[in-house]
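Database export, one record per block. Field names are fixed; values are copied verbatim from the stored entry.
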Amino acid sequence: MDVLNLIKNKKAVRVYKDRGISPKNINRIIEAGIWGPSLLAVGFQPWKFVVVTNRSVIEKIAAILLKKSEVIGIGGNRVLRMSANTVLNAKAVIVVYNSCCVSDFMKRFESIYMEIARCAEISAIAAAIQNMSLAAESLKIGSCWLDAPLFCEKEINELLRKNDKLAAILTLGYSNHKGKRSPRKPLAETVEYVK
């Protein structure tokens, strides 16, 4: 499948078959992530990945999200419950962290650079997640990129004994449903050409 078709056919998968993912395939997915764009001339790579395949730990992450859904505002609780179900159903979970290495480096300069550094880190990490998601799709493995776990950074970090900045969670598993993509706006609505 060519890349554009792969992108167009990629759907968020939230329901997975009861079938594990081989370590070889997980490593291929991670490898795609680390080949995302690095930053600045020195090649900063701000991502860190924690791969969770232990069923008990996956269940604990889902429980953290579910518990937070009970105390958060009306808009976030539905999203957190959906995310908890997706995590619980996953066969592997990649917890994605921002090491903040660019921000740490930029502390020695004027404060304006800090905001740019943070944006650059988020952009690089997002590209790494997209690479992993597309690599999974190419292996016929479904994935779902979750941002709602950011509400639970402290609790997830305590569980995983991490100190880094939580960026997202990517769930993985072989799809047990067709899924769907929301329609896309026409190019005329979203693109402006300067000639």
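Remark 1: The domain at 12-176 is CATH 3.40.109.10 (NADH Oxidase).
Remark 2: Residues 56 and 88 are 10 Å apart (CA to CA).
End of record.
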